[in-house]
Amino acid sequence: MINLDLTFVIQLINFLVLMLVLNIFLYKPLRKVLSEREKEISGARQRAAGVDSDVQEKVALYEARLREVKLQAHERRGAMLKEAQAEEAATLEKARKEASDTIGAIKGKVAQEAADAKNLLREQARSLSLEICEKVLGRSL
Predict the structure, then answer these.
(1) Residue of 37, 41, 39 lying closest to 49 (CA atoms)
(2) Helix (H, G, I), strand (E, B), or coil: what is residue 114?
(3) What is the pLDDT of residues 32-45, one digit of tens each?
(4) Phi, psi of 115 (to 5 degrees)
(5) Cα separation of 74 and 68, whole Å?
(6) I need a surface site. Which of 56, 106, 126, 141 has the fewest CB within 10 A?
């Protein structure tokens, strides 16, 4: 059984004084340090969240600019390809025209040479036939 005598009261007073002293010198400073640490942590979290949102915003801006640049590059490449195809077509057409003109000139030259050769052969054939006739007939014609 528990006796409630004077030692109990002294122990109780001792305990209360100890609680008061511990509260003043240990618990309050400890709570204050923990509270300050919690404030610092929450402030750091807010700053981190702000930095994170800034980073996300900059990444989104970067990706948008990257898409825009890629689109412009694609458009330029398409325009340059069309320009190159047009230039190629013009060059091919010019080459075809030059080839056609050259072939026409060569055909004309060949036709002229053939006509000249025909005339020369006609003259030679006439003179040869005249010589043959003279030799066969034995007289001059």
Answers:
(1) 41
(2) helix
(3) 999 999 999 999 99
(4) -65, -40
(5) 10
(6) 141
Q: What are phi and psi of 4, to 5 degrees?
A: -100, 80
- Give the single-character DSSP code of 3: -
| CA atoms of 113 and 136, how far apart (whole Å) | 33
What is the token pair recorded at 56? 């996300």
Contact status, residue 71 vs residue 64, Cβ threshold 8 Å: no
- CA–CA dist 20, 27 (Å, integer): 10
Torsion sign (Cα): 33, 39, 45, 48: negative
Collect all residues with Cβ–Cβ distance below 8 Å to 133 and sequence separation of at least 6: 141
105-118 pLDDT, tens digit per residue, is 999 999 999 999 99
With b meaning 16 or more CB within 10 Å and e meaning fewer, what string describes 49-62? eeeeeeeeeeeeee
Would the pTM count as exceeding 0.90?
no
Distance between CA 105 and CA 113 in Å, rounded? 12
